[in-house]
Amino acid sequence: MAMKIRLARAGSKKRPFYRIVASDSRMPRDGRFLEKLGTYNPLLPKDSEERVKMDAERIQYWLDQGAQPTDRIARFLEAAGLREKAVRNNPQKAEPGKKAKERAEEKAAKAAEAPADASAE
Length: 121
Fold this sequence. Notes:
Strand content: 15-25%
Largest sheet: 5 strands, mixed
GO cellular component, one term: small ribosomal subunit
Strand order of the largest sheet: 4-3-2-1-5
Keywords: Ribonucleoprotein, Ribosomal protein
Order of helices and strands: EEEEHEHH
GO molecular function, one term: structural constituent of ribosome
InterPro entries: Ribosomal_bS16, Ribosomal_bS16_dom_sf
Family: Belongs to the bacterial ribosomal protein bS16 family.
CATH class of the domain at 3-80: Alpha Beta
Structural class: alpha+beta
């Protein structure tokens, strides 16, 4: 069974609240889970201790059993010191999209034509 440690959404519309759960990866996001491991309330300030609560001992147990944390949970674990900080490198993140590149090329071409017209007069 492929295990995941992930967030399961609770709370009402526009008021998110998440449970940190150990679940079979084939189950739906808010569906059946094996164990509740903590909570995450994104509406609280980032420095609040109540924002992320985890049972570190149980999370470590599930990690030892082979459960894979999702990206968000991995960041929580890094902040709590339960996991080494992973190196993240996305060189395409700052690169503009295809349409933005085309617009920039058109703008550069127009700028190159404009000074040539001004000097002809």
